[in-house]
UniProtKB/TrEMBL annotation:
Pfam families: LEA_2. Residues 1-24 have a biased composition (Polar residues). GO terms for biological process: defense response to other organism. Keywords: Membrane, Transmembrane, Transmembrane helix. The chain crosses the membrane at residues 65-87. Residues 141-219 form the Late embryogenesis abundant protein LEA-2 subgroup domain. This is Late embryogenesis abundant protein LEA-2 subgroup domain-containing protein. GO terms for cellular component: plasma membrane. It is found in: Membrane. Residues 1-40 are annotated as: Disordered.
Length: 233
C-alpha cells in the first residue's frame, strides 16, 4: 500500500475552522461527515468579600481619640487636685451682720363669743396678722489664695419658733483675700401670730429698737481654679 501523505497545513486549517465554529456557537459539519456542536461560553463571576480595612481604621481612630481625651481629662483633674492641695483651702466666713425691720403692720382678729345667759357679746382678740419687710446684711470673707464660687443660698426667718418668711441670696463669685457685703430682703405678708407674740414683737421694735429673729439656712461654696470648681468647702 502506498504511503499516505498527510498535509500538516490541512490539519491546521481544520483545527482553526473547528475553533472558529466553537467561538461562534454554530453547528458545522466536519469534512469527514461528523457533526460538531459548539458549546456556549460560560462566564464565571467571582465575588470578592468587602474589605474591612476602612472599618478597622475608623475603630482605631475612635479608640485613639477616646484615650486621648481620657488622658487629658485625668491630667487636668490631677493639676486641679495638686493646686487645691497646695493652696490648702479654708472655709469662707459668711456671717449675718445686721437685720433691720423697714416696715411693720399688724391687724388683729377678734372672734365673737355669745353667752346665752348674758345680753352682751364678748370679743377676745386671740390672733394677729403681721406684715413686715426685713432687710438682712451678710458679710462674706474669703481667706484663701484662690477665688470662691458661692451657690444660691436660701434662708428662713423665724420668730419664737414661727417661720415668718424666706429669703434667697443669688450665687456670686468672690476674689481671693477679699470681703464682700451681701444684702437680702424678706417681705412678710400677713403672717399669723398669736396676739401676745405680735404685741411683744411690736413692743420690742418700737421701744427697744430690737427684735429677736432667728435666721436658718445653708451656704454652699466651692473653690474655683482655672474655671474648674472643686467640691464644697
Amino acid at each position: 500500500m502506498p504511503p499516505t501523505n498527510m498535509n500538516p497545513n490541512h490539519n491546521q486549517s481544520q483545527a482553526t475552522e473547528t475553533r472558529s465554529s466553537t467561538a461562534n456557537g454554530d453547528h458545522h459539519h466536519h469534512p469527514n461527515g461528523h457533526s460538531i456542536t459548539a458549546q456556549p461560553l460560560q462566564r464565571h463571576h467571582t465575588y470578592y468579600p468587602r474589605s474591612s480595612s476602612s472599618s478597622a481604621s475608623f475603630k482605631g481612630c475612635c479608640c485613639c481619640l477616646f484615650l486621648l481625651f481620657s488622658f487629658l481629662a485625668l491630667l487636668v483633674l490631677a493639676i486641679v487636685l495638686i493646686i487645691v492641695l497646695a493652696v490648702k483651702p479654708k472655709k469662707p466666713q459668711f456671717d449675718l451682720q445686721q437685720v433691720a425691720v423697714q416696715y411693720m403692720g399688724i391687724s388683729t382678729s377678734t372672734p365673737s363669743s355669745f353667752d346665752g345667759t348674758a345680753t352682751t357679746v364678748a370679743t377676745t382678740p386671740t390672733t394677729a396678722s403681721l406684715s413686715l419687710t426685713i432687710r438682712m446684711l451678710f458679710t462674706a470673707v474669703n481667706p484663701n489664695k484662690v477665688g470662691i464660687k458661692y451657690g444660691e443660698s436660701r434662708f428662713t426667718v423665724m420668730y419664737r419658733g414661727i417661720p415668718l418668711g424666706k429669703a434667697s441670696v443669688p450665687g456670686f463669685y468672690q476674689e481671693a483675700h477679699s470681703t464682700r457685703n451681701v444684702e437680702a430682703t424678706i417681705a412678710v405678708d400677713r403672717a399669723n401670730l398669736m396676739q401676745a407674740d405680735a404685741a411683744d414683737l411690736i413692743r420690742d421694735a418700737s421701744m427697744y429698737d430690737r427684735v429677736q429673729l432667728r435666721v436658718l439656712g445653708d451656704v454652699g461654696a466651692k473653690i474655683r481654679v482655672l474655671d474648674f470648681d472643686s467640691p464644697g468647702v
